[in-house]
Amino acid sequence: MEKEDLLACHQRIKPFIHNTPVLTSQLLNGMVGASLFFKCENFQKMGAFKMRGGVNSIMQLTKEEQKRGVVTHSSGNFAQALSLASKSLGVPAYIVMPSNAPNVKKEAVKGYGGQVIECEPTLEARELAAEKIVNEKGATFLHPSNDMDVILGQGTACMELLEEHPDLEYVITPVGGGGLIAGTALAAHFFGQNCKVVGGEPLEVDDAYRSLKSGKIETNITTNTIADGLKTQLGDQNFPIIQKHVDEIIRVTEEEIVTAMRLLWERLKIVCEPSCAVAFAAVQKEKNTFLNKKVGIIISGGNVDLGNLPF
Amino acid sequence: MEKEDLLACHQRIKPFIHNTPVLTSQLLNGMVGASLFFKCENFQKMGAFKMRGGVNSIMQLTKEEQKRGVVTHSSGNFAQALSLASKSLGVPAYIVMPSNAPNVKKEAVKGYGGQVIECEPTLEARELAAEKIVNEKGATFLHPSNDMDVILGQGTACMELLEEHPDLEYVITPVGGGGLIAGTALAAHFFGQNCKVVGGEPLEVDDAYRSLKSGKIETNITTNTIADGLKTQLGDQNFPIIQKHVDEIIRVTEEEIVTAMRLLWERLKIVCEPSCAVAFAAVQKEKNTFLNKKVGIIISGGNVDLGNLPF
């Protein structure tokens, strides 16, 4: 990947995304002893950075492919992102979701124009269901995180952040499937001034931490975390980028995630997902690393159930 | 008041305030059939637009007056605003608060450097306590809303909104003591292109609605509203401006306020007070007035107790 690929990607998706605002808080700065710049992708269209990768991956298909549609399996933000991105671009979207996915998630996908295909809640069933759509409709399967066009799209959030604050010394993102941190790492590499990239990861799903240590993709042993967006695994497209360009992964406990989440709500006045709080919790945990530094934090999304808050 | 007074005020306070972001939501636009532009003063320093008027009113004092300090009685956002504004400007701030005010409010004032003076929870007691500070310390009393310098300061939020979106056809604010809507009305008059100003007010505290009808300042009969920032009364400084420049006051029920508040949290992904939701609820209620119009909405503040949400 080259600088030009990211620039072209940003130009391409610009009409379909928000350039989200960057918030600051003197109080939070004081608490951690650093200057924090929160890139608020919770204000992105459909409420998460995933819109960026969704739009880019569809736009990179041929007209013929676009006509036949796209398919993915996800019950999270990528399902909604692909649905809204498809709607914006006039492309059919087929979203395979487990039958036990919350109704509000299914309704959100339908609300954005996606077609929900229900399947049994097993990995095998969802892969079979997606394959069936590929075969029957000729639709293109798009992976939520292990896809170079998705990775480039996700990287544009960090590009915008660095356009506004070129002298950031760190950028921190949560780590789930690895698409966001890989894209961020590329953006920081090409557009930062020696800007390091750090990941925040729940101790409960520390596959990225262990993978960086061992040098190969490790799988999650437990997935018992409130940060439901981060339960996914790294893939062979994003892992090499993470290996090459990510400085460190900091792991945080469930309690640290909830405390950080509440602080973001109370002090930044934003509604954000537990997954976002993981990145901020990492800064709180390793204050010494970031002392007196300029630190960007990607607030990844804001799709949270207000009826089920952890505080 | 002239255009130049507002321009000078904005220049004066700029170093001490945030130019807050303006958010949009296609989904909310679709729901009301208008183009909405939310000016997010919940992201203002200390979490509310009151910072603007607080800073301006202190900066308009002489050096001698500033040295002797400022005093107000408030248990709401103006208490915190005056405390932080005073701290930013190196001025002592004395805040008279009723002894039964929530501890979190007293702590917030102290956290921003204000000196809390407790009094019995009666109007008489708080006025006496404030008078005592004026006499003993030579401090200047500043009113939260019925003060021309405060009004001008609050108007700068609408100025910034119109700088970004000059062609707004309406701007809507909640109405409490009248400082925000009066300042907004002046800003819209001087900087808008035929931009109308509308107020949202809880039915439970509809003094502004009734005052506009009768032509004189009416008092509230009940104050039984969740929008605790709006229980205050209009004053003789702001009422004439409201009479002259405000188009209409729309009243909303408590249920409409809570529904609107939840929508703002869920869809805009922002933490905002019930008082802010009153302005958005007014647009939802009188959809026909705003159909296909460009409408600015001032989100007034975000200081809300997460442990005590109405949903």
Q: What is the element layout, followed by pairings?
A:
The structure is a homodimer of 311-residue chains.
Chain A: H1 3-13, E1 22-23, H2 26-32, E2 35-40, H3 50-59, H4 63-68, E3 70-73, H5 77-89, E4 93-98, H6 103-111, E5 115-119, H7 123-137, E6 140-141, H8 148-164, E7 170-174, H9 179-191, E8 196-202, H10 207-214, H11 239-245, E9 248-252, H12 254-268, H13 274-285, H14 287-290, E10 294-299
Parallel strand pairs in A: 2-10, 3-4, 3-6, 4-5, 7-8, 7-10, 8-9
Antiparallel strand pairs in A: 1-2
Number of β-strand runs of chain A? 10
Which pair has the most extensive contact? Answer: A-B, 20 and 20 residues
How many helices of chain A? The count is 14
* Class by SSE composition of chain A: alpha/beta
Radius of gyration of chain A: 18 Å
- Average the pLDDT over all residues of chain A and give the rounded result: 96
Task: Identify the quaternary structure here.
Answer: homodimer
| Major sheet characteristics of chain A | 6 strands, mixed
Q: What is the end-to-end distance of chain A?
A: 42 Å
The helicity of chain A comes to: 40-55%
Topology order of chain A in helix (H) and strand (E) letters: HEHEHHEHEHEHEHEHEHHEHHHE
Widest sheet, order of strands of chain A = 1-2-10-7-8-9
Structure, explained:
The structure is a homodimer of 311-residue chains. Chain A has 311 residues and is α/β, with parallel strands linked by helices. In chain A, the strands form 2 sheets. A 6-stranded mixed beta sheet of chain A has the order 1-2-10-7-8-9, with helices on both faces. In chain A, strand 3, helix 5 and strand 4 form a beta-alpha-beta unit. Chain A is globular and about 55 Å long. At the A-B interface, helix 12 of A face helix 12 of B.
